Amino acid sequence: MKDELWVPDCYYDIPVAYAVFNVIVAEDGQTVKDARYVFVNHKYCELVGKNQKELLRKMYSVASVRPDPRWMQYCTQALQEGRAIRDSLYSQEVEHCLDFTVMPMQRAGYVSYTFLNVDVDWAQRIDMQRHGIMNDTILKISKILNNEEDYETSMFENVFLRAD
């Protein structure tokens, strides 16, 4: 058997949402004002609820139901700094919390994005924060009630008079 160079199918085999854009720069020569879809994979199409034909060669501002200018700001930052930018945000377009990376490509004027839907992670973080606040509150009340003063005095002095 002869070794052959195998090339994965970029549309189906990339395990995260992935898109490539040709950026459209504003008159100032630096700010990205829009971007044209050049490539999207299957996961990206699932994320945005559109197929390849609805996206490729279309402007982001036209193809998106609710275009978010933050994506163009991230493109601008990545191109100006010449490096990958990683961040997280809630996207109203897709109604999910996303971890993403935008990176300038080797070909000038192009950027690529990868997206991970992290709704479960965000929900767990928020839940942990709530539990932490609840635990802190329970500890404060326990300390207040364990002092030698009567209940009414302790609650009035420690809860109503303190604003910490």
Q: Major sheet, described briefly?
A: 5 strands, antiparallel
Low-confidence stretches: none
The strand order across the widest sheet is: 2-1-5-4-3
What percent of residues adopt helix (DSSP H or I)?
A: 25-40%
Based on Cα principal axes, name the global outline. elongated
Mean pLDDT: 85
Which structural category do the helix and sheet elements fall into?
alpha+beta
Number of H- or I-type helical stretches: 6
User: Which series of helices and strands comes N to C?
Assistant: EEHHHHEEEHH
Distance between the termini: 74 Å
Percent strand equals 25-35%
Determine Rg (CA atoms, Å): 25 Å
Overall strand count: 5
Oligomer: single chain
List keywords for this structure.
26% strand; 164 residues; five-stranded antiparallel β-sheet; alpha+beta; elongated
